[in-house]
Amino acid sequence: MTAAVSIRDLDIELGFGASRRLILDGVALDVPQGACFGLVGESGSGKSTVLRCIALLLRGWSGDIDINGRPVRDIPRAEYCRQVQMVFQDPYGSLHPRQSVATALFEPLRTHKLDRHQERAEAALADVGLPGDFLYRYPHELSGGQRQRVAIARALILDPSILLLDEPTSALDVSVQAEVLNLLSDLRTKRGLTYLLVSHDLAVIDHLCDQFAVMQHGRLLEVLPREAIANLQVTNDYSRSLIQASLDYDRAI
Amino acid sequence: MTVSSNALPAAKASLRRTFRDEAGRMLRRLLSNPATAFGLCVIVILVLAAIFAPLLMTHNPLAQNLSNILKAPSAENWFGTDELGRDVYSRLIAGTRITLTIIGLVSIIVAPIGLVIGTTAGYFGGWYDTAMMRITDIFLSFPGLILSLAFVAALGPNLNNAIIAIALTSWPPIARLARAETLILRSADYISAAHLLGASPLRILVKSIVPMCLPSVLIRVTLSMATVILTAAGLGFLGLGAQPPTPEWGAMIATGRNYMLESWWLVTFPGAAILLVSLSFNLVGDGLRDVLDPKNR
């Protein structure tokens, strides 16, 4: 079976002139179909950049990114949108402040010329546990958790098979974080989605992911199974200290 | 969790209600500032005067009466008569229509041009942005009145050309503003999300970026109305705008200037009208900024 997402030798340089830097250096990973793959690392290690490269929000990269066995740059735009979607970190920035939930959900349906807008939008809201009359609300009338649910509904409305999650819970309250994580995990089992999840919170990775990769300074250090968090079966020193630090932190709380 | 289908029309109605509430709240906030309320009153009076001009005029603004020239304000001629015996009050009222035409046409031309150039330059960036912004720089580097003078001199002096000339000189600040706003918005997550959901650049510009730029553009257009009125009057005064016998305020001052020392009313009333109207647009623009600009909330 081909991997849902397969990345080889992904390099990207960002910035101009003297401040130009290599942000990603030879990243390679495989996400099997239906799996949840985590990416961890400290701030600035390039986790989110990997997602932005896959989502084609950054274009200057070199290397290979294959989606379901096809090079991502060869997939027609409309088809790509229906395979890969993304949920952003900040639910306050990812919804247009002047668009109602209905507009946010109808827009992709209109651009992809799909029918039964009302029905599909209500179904998408029901899937993320929101009542249908939320369609007529504006983002400023929603809480952070509700906004993130709307953002997930919007990402799922085109029925993609791969969801890129860029720290989907880190901007949320701890109690709401658990709700959104459970929602994501339910949606994955129900729809057979593939997740590529970026997080700096190992508890989130432990809760959702089957395996995860540790990143530092734009390099992917190693790919570990979930169990590695509990029993610390890690070869790389940096990953060990990262996991150890996270465990110590949890204990301290 | 689903909602019965008859609850949805109710939700839609409540959405409309919030819109009306929002508009009402905005108007109340505008009126709660005395300066803005004053400005709004003057503009409303200006518009009403233009609509009901035929009813308000006591004389034909173009009718000459050579036996009744340069008369001081009286019960018969409220603001006096000019050097050809025309009633200054009636000419002033007739002038409101010209002023409103200039303001209306200029904003209809300027706001879309500024928005289109600014948002596309900001969104697409690269050489297109550079080219557009250098053109904008060229327009900005000349004082508005001088550039309008050059355009009118080239196109020929009349009111329509004056409007075109003023429009050509007042879009660059709006384009700059729209570009600056677009540069901030371009990196927002909701724009990335729209892009990722398959929206074309045009769709993103029209549906996501322009609505966010509109309030500041509206404020800027209102504020620049004051300059537009002054430039129009200036062109009229220099004989390059409205031509005699059109009762344009600037042109009225220009002819009245010759008799200014003995007949003060010829310059005073049109001058006061220009002052009042441009001041009002400034005050309303300031008020709008207080209400619409999210940074001031």
Automatic annotation (TrEMBL), chain A:
Write out the similarity annotation.
Belongs to the ABC transporter superfamily.
Q: Which Pfam families match?
A: ABC_tran (PF00005)
Say yes or no: keyword Isomerase present.
no
Per the database record, which ranges form the ABC transporter domain?
A: 7-242
Keyword ATP-binding in record: yes
Keywords from the UniProt entry: ATP-binding, Nucleotide-binding, Transport
Q: Which GO terms describe its biological process?
A: transmembrane transport
Q: What is this protein's name?
A: ABC transporter ATP-binding protein
Q: Name one GO molecular function term.
A: ATP hydrolysis activity
From what organism does this protein derive? Devosia sediminis
Q: Which PROSITE patterns match?
A: ABC_TRANSPORTER_1, ABC_TRANSPORTER_2
UniProtKB/TrEMBL annotation, chain B:
Q: Where is the ABC transmembrane type-1 domain?
A: 96-285
UniProt record, GO biological process: peptide transport; protein transport; transmembrane transport
One protein family per Pfam: BPD_transp_1
PROSITE patterns assigned to the protein according to its UniProt record, in alphabetical order: ABC_TM1 (PS50928)
GO CC entries: plasma membrane
Q: Where are the transmembrane segments?
A: 35-57, 98-126, 138-156, 217-243, 263-285
The superkingdom of the source organism is: Bacteria
Question: How does the protein associate with the membrane?
Answer: Multi-pass membrane protein
Which family does this protein fall into? Belongs to the binding-protein-dependent transport system permease family.
Its name, as the record gives it, is: ABC transporter permease
Species assigned in the record: Devosia sediminis
